[in-house]
User: Fold these one by one.
Assistant:
Number 1:
Amino acid sequence: GAGVSQSPSNKVTEKGKDVELRCDPISGHTALYWYRQRLGQGLEFLIYFQGNSAPDKSGLPSDRFSAERTGESVSTLTIQRTQQEDSAVYLCASTPLLVDHEQFFGPGTRLTVL
Amino acid sequence: GNSVTQMEGPVTLSEEAFLTINCTYTATGYPSLFWYVQYPGEGLQLLLKATKADDKGSNKGFEATYRKETTSFHLEKGSVQVSDSAVYFCALSESNFGNEKLTFGTGTRLTIIP
């Protein structure tokens, strides 16, 4: 079946602009994670959604970052007033909760802030 | 907090050589441990995992043993192939009310030459 998809695959924006990144999880996966990978670094956790429960936003680096997810469907990550340090690959992962602990990753969105 | 330290790369080996990529971790509880791999042009995917001490994860000829006494999860393969060229990430998770957010190492780029 279809895997996790993300769009756009690449995004170039100017400093100060807002961007919206989209993640379509695998159908039936209740949990969804966003991670960020800056150049030469490991992935950093940003936010976790599980069904209709309150999300874990503990990894969001600033209040310019926000994310939404309705139920078990699409999620969007929004970065307002982008800064150059926001340049990174943003990865989304989904998982069927409590089964095998495996997270299934999307291909990522490469964000470049000029 | 949790952290993962893995061997810095890049690592270059000849085909059929023995591979070890070191990984150590710091965690407050009893984490699950993972190796994820990213092949050129592809998304991040799970290679193997171990969920408790002394467990051995294995897949595609790779192995790693969860060593609680040394807080390590080193990746090994007896005879590497050109197709093993990829970036390898060690990671851990500790379940918190179903939230299994991953903490990653910085990744090790492996290149196998024929």
Number 2:
Amino acid sequence: DAKTTQPPSMDCAEGRAANLPCNHSTISGNEYVYWYRQIHSQGPQYIIHGLKNNETNEMASLIITEDRKSSTLILPHATLRDTAVYYCIAQFFGNEKLTFGTGTRLTIIP
Amino acid sequence: DTGVSQNPRHKITKRGQNVTFRCDPISEHNRLYWYRQTLGQGPEFLTYFQNEAQLEKSRLLSDRFSAERPKGSFSTLEIQRTEQGDSAMYLCASSLVWSSGYEQYFGPGTRLTVT
């Protein structure tokens, strides 16, 4: 699985869009990009995943660059409950083990 | 709520004792995973099951660790002769594979403290 690089921490004002970047410059053509988050003292929570196209669900949007070397997770209207560590993972479909890095600690500021 | 459940939520034990954790996955999920997380780090994969078959084990899973999923439903993770380095959060997850990728659903974890 490709290595991913994320900033260690970010702040975002409540109500604004939070844009979390992830670099995966060595990603191969059939590796998916997954995003999970972990709120303090809870297990990780799946957010979204994508292969090539941009994806949107009720939680977030995932924008993947055309060359697939980076992606951005967008939380459109951040709330205090979105304060968490966000993990970006590049993974082959069929590879069962998620390889978590240290993620980005996102703090939503009131 | 029919999410992944784990018991106990917290366990304090003395070095050298054996401990066992239980995980109940989402009922229709056929895959079950165990991860370990130490402070400030992301979760690390330990092992996974498809139904009752244990299909992969990490090198992190030493001989003192054993996991079972006897009927393809709940799973147990046992640590024998615990060491202080075993202190961590033990996370269980389950999934149902589908054609365009899959997500893992995590339980709240069992926090182990070895004194």
